[in-house]
Every structure is written in C-alpha cells, then in structure tokens.
Write a sequence for this structure.
C-alpha cells in the first residue's frame, strides 16, 4: 500500500468507525427508550381498570398500524387507503390459526405478520409505479374489495361470512394467577407489540433505508440518477408498512375475540390516514398521538353525549363531529401535527431560556 492510498483510506476508515459508533449509540438509546416505555405502561395498566385496559390495548394495536403507515406515507410519500385491508389479512390469519392449528400466540402473530407482508409484496409490486390519485384509487379498491371476500360463497365456511370468526380468547399464563384480569393481559400483549414495532421502525428509519426512502420522496428522479432503485424501495416500504398493519390486525382479533368484515371498513383506513396527519407526518412519536386521538376522543365524546342526555341521532354523530373538529384544529394550529407542535414549543422555550441567560443583569451593566 502506497502512502497516497493510506492517506485516502484513513478518512474512509474513520467515517466507517464513526458510523458504527453512531449506530450503536442509536440502538442503545432506542432500547433504553423501549424499556422505559414498557415500565411506564406496566404501571399504567396496573393502575387502570378493565375498561381503561381495553382502551390502552386498542390504542396500542392502532399505534402499530399508524406507525407502519407513517413509514409508507409520511417518509415515503406514498398515499395508501388500503391499510384497513392489511389489518383484515392479519386478523383473519390469526383467527384461522388459533381456531384450526392452536399454535402459541406468539407464533400466530409472527405468522400473521409474515402473511400480511407477503400480501404487501404483491400490492407494492402492483402499485410501485403509481402516483397520486392513481395510487390512492388502487389502494382504495383494495380496501373496499378485500374484506368483501368474507361474503364470497366459496369462502363462507372458511371465513364465516358477514358474522366473521370467533377467536378463542387468549387466557393469561397460569403463572400470573387464576384471578389475573384478562383485559390487563391483553393490554400487555398489545403494548409489547406496539413498543417492539416502534423500536424496530425507529432503527430502520434512522438508517440507510430511511435516508433512501426520504430521498425517493423528495426527488424521485434525482434519487434514481444516484443509483437508487425507486420501485424496489417503495415495494420494501409497502412490505414494512403492511407487516405492521398485519400485527395490528392480529392483536385486534385477539383483543376483541372476533375477526369480521365489519371491523375493517373503509372508514378505518381513512382514520389511519387522519391519525398520521394529527400526530405528525413522518414522526413515529406522532403515530402514538394519532392512535390516542383515534381511541380516546370518540370515547370522551360518547361520555359527554350520555351525560348531557342528548337524543340518539345527536349522540351517535357527536363522536364523529368532535373527531373532525380535532382534525381541523390540529391541522390549522399545528401544520406538522401534534408532535411537530410540541417540538416547536420546546424549541421556543429553549430559545427563550437561552436569551434570558445571555441577558446582562442590572449589576453587571452598572
């Protein structure tokens, strides 16, 4: 090796070492955050009652779906209206395996993720070269058509028709005791799935895949000129997003003990899109905020309607009206979503604190 080669390879080795150090630091930081989140959720579910535990479980599995959609739409710029259908694939896979195979729950959920990822590969390959309204139309047809297969005559016995499939309840382990609340166990499973999803996606989107995905979103032609295979990246993003939705659907089937077409209407896919807008496009933390809004705002509106003794028509439409109002207010007040608003507020407070520190006191000026 010549002296010139050594000088040239020195900065390269330094850059590689720096990248490895940053990767390990990022992994450790995300792991620490995941452990802290699990500890906080453990305390929260222990203090909550059965109804709140079910709400926490619902918010957790919706977080999986919204986080996956954040990768596809928020980071990749691909509009998808079909994630309710991906959740249906995961739910029916979970139901069929629990009914006919009696596999362990962890293996069933892994299988649901794998099957949904395979379906996502097909959908991603079809939609990889579609853009804008064409892509939205294709995924819309997928969201409308797939749940309708449950009513297809040759599949009635397998999928249960419009009544769906009753999923065997997931009993808590015997080590937790006979009187351990089922709702708390369901909340634990859903929260573990949500935290694991966020942990994996955080490491994935902060690495090379995330940078490539953002490049295809910002300028597809420039990314292609730099050697990025745009179609392959978009298919990979669809597969990742579908896998997250499959996990969400599997957890939904376990928590609700049912997999039925009525649980996956077109409105569910639209709500998932609205959730990433509310929470913050491209932000995994925003996915959590969006899922919380999806669960707790309608529940709060229903409580308000019951306490106010409103008519049935008003009470049934109040949750949707309040949800739309929240969406409008957040969009106008925080164009980057709740998470973007929190970041802006924190930056403003930091600048104000720094300005106060730099401001000279009266004694110093005198």
């Amino acid at each position: 090796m010549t002296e010139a080669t050594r000088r040239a390879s020195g900065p390269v080795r330094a850059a590689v070492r720096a990248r490895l150090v940053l990767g390990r630091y990022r992994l450790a930081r995300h792991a620490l955050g995941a452990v802290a989140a699990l500890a906080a959720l453990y305390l929260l579910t222990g203090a909550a009652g059965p109804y709140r535990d079910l709400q926490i479980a619902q918010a957790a599995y919706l977080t999986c779906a919204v986080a996956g959609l954040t990768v596809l739409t928020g980071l990749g710029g691909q509009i998808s209206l079909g994630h309710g259908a991906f959740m249906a694939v995961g739910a029916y896979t979970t139901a069929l395996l629990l009914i006919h195979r009696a596999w362990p729950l962890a293996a069933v959920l892994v299988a649901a993720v794998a099957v949904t990822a395979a379906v996502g590969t097909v959908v991603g390959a079809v939609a990889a070269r579609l853009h804008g309204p064409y892509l939205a139309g294709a995924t819309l047809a997928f969201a409308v058509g797939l749940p309708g297969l449950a009513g297809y005559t040759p599949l009635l016995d397998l999928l249960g028709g419009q009544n769906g499939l009753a999923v065997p309840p997931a009993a808590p382990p015997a080590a937790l005791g006979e009187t351990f609340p089922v709702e708390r166990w369901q909340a634990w499973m859903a929260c573990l799935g949500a935290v694991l999803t966020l942990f994996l996606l955080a490491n994935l989107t902060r690495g090379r895949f995330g940078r490539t995905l953002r490049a295809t979103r910002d300028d597809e032609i420039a990314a292609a000129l730099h050697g990025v295979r745009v179609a392959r990246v978009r298919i990979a993003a669809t597969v990742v997003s579908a896998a997250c939705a499959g996990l969400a659907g599997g957890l939904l089937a376990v928590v609700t003990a049912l997999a039925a077409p009525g649980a996956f209407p077109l409105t569910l896919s639209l709500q998932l899109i609205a959730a990433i807008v509310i929470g913050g496009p491209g932000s995994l933390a925003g996915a959590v905020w969006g899922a919380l809004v999806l669960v707790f705002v309608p529940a709060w509106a229903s409580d308000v309607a019951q306490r106010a003794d409103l008519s049935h028509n008003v009470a049934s439409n109040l949750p949707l009206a309040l949800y739309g109002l929240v969406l409008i207010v957040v969009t106008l007040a925080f164009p980057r979503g709740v998470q973007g608003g929190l970041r802006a507020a924190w930056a403003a407070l930091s600048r104000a604190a720094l300005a106060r520190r730099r401001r000279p006191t009266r004694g110093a000026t005198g």
